[in-house]
Design goal:
By secondary structure, the chain is α/β, with parallel strands linked by helices. It has helices at residues 3-12, 26-31, 36-61, 64-78, 97-114, 126-133, 204-212, 248-265, and strands spanning 82-83, 85-89, 119-120, 139-147, 151-158, 163-167, 170-174, 180-183, 194-196, 221-227, 231-236, 241-243, 274-276, 284-286. The protein starts with a helix and ends in a 16-residue tail after the last strand.
Length: 302
């Protein structure tokens, strides 16, 4: 066999196919600040990224990740990681019933999604439970913890009652931020400051600041009425009302002066009906009608 024959035979054999290359036209490549090989490599990467994006769109359209996740969660559930119970901790005032409702509804949803009797741990949406619990007035914060293999722990941080709020014949507990915690019957009123009037709940911190400057008057306060959304009328247990001016600084200054005068001359308890401090530097006093002695201030609840 001659060398020529060998060469002809070699050329006759089929050559392995090479993967198609994405190349950049020479005219465009000359304008780029890179050489031809690097430009071709860059074009190939762009093409690969484009094909990957198409594949991702197809996968998302077919909901493959969601199906895979649910299947994996169901498999984990069959392995024993299901929720068979839950614990609620941190409750002092709030009723347990609404929390039970939120948790059981989420467990039922997760079980239905997995097609099992019990909810797999992986399918329980703890974030959704927390968001729903934060809608209750008593709940300041909530933490939902997974205790493997089969328990949830619902840790509740309750708000602390700071005052009572009377508005439109309704009596409610509020915290220091004015958040309504719960309704309160008149015969079960706790020993807390009573705020009266529309919007008074949002002014609880302001009132607490005013009373902090007059420790001799604070224990004698029966209620405080938020008047016209602008100022306070303080109603004392001995029957008098002290009308404060608008504005935090003006009200604070007037109340401190009144407390000093009361300490010196015992203004409260003399049967005076009203002390009006709204005019700067003056105190206008209203005496009771001769035939009607002053009565101790009482909250009016419908």
């Amino acid at each position: 066999m001659t060398a020529a024959h060998v060469r002809r035979g070699a050329s006759a054999r089929s050559k392995p196919r090479k993967s198609p290359k994405v190349t950049v036209p020479k005219k465009i490549a000359k304008r780029l600040p890179v050489d031809q090989a690097r430009a071709n490599k860059l074009a190939g990467l762009v093409f690969a990224a484009f094909m990957l994006a198409i594949a991702l769109v197809v996968v998302i359209a077919l909901d493959s990740p969601g199906k895979a996740e649910r299947a994996a969660a169901a498999a984990v559930g069959h392995a024993g990681f299901t929720v068979s119970g839950y614990q609620i901790v941190g409750l002092a005032h709030m009723s347990r019933a609404p929390i039970d409702t939120v948790v059981t509804e989420e467990l039922r949803r997760a079980a239905d999604e997995a097609g099992t009797d019990k909810a797999p741990q992986a399918l329980v949406d703890t974030g959704a439970i927390r968001r729903r619990l934060l809608q209750f007035g008593w709940v300041k914060d909530a933490r939902i913890l997974r205790r493997l293999p089969d328990t949830l722990v619902i840790d509740i941080v309750e708000r602390k009652p700071a005052a009572l709020w009377q508005n439109q014949g309704q009596l409610a507990l509020i915290d220091s931020e004015g958040i309504v915690l719960d309704r309160v019957p008149v015969d079960k009123m706790p020993d807390l400051p009573l705020l009266i009037g529309p919007g008074a709940n949002a002014q609880e911190q302001e009132l607490a600041g005013l009373l902090a400057d007059v420790p001799t008057l604070k224990p004698q306060l029966a209620s405080a009425t938020w008047v016209g959304g602008r100022r306070w009328d303080l109603n004392f247990q001995s029957g008098e009302t002290v009308a404060l001016p608008e504005g935090d600084e003006a009200a604070r200054s007037a109340l401190v002066k009144f407390a000093r005068l009361d300490k010196q001359t015992a203004l409260l308890g003399r049967g005076i009906v009203r002390f009006d401090l709204r005019v700067p530097g003056k105190m206008i006093v209203r005496l009771p009608h001769p035939l009607e002695p002053a009565k101790p201030a009482q909250p009016v609840v419908g």
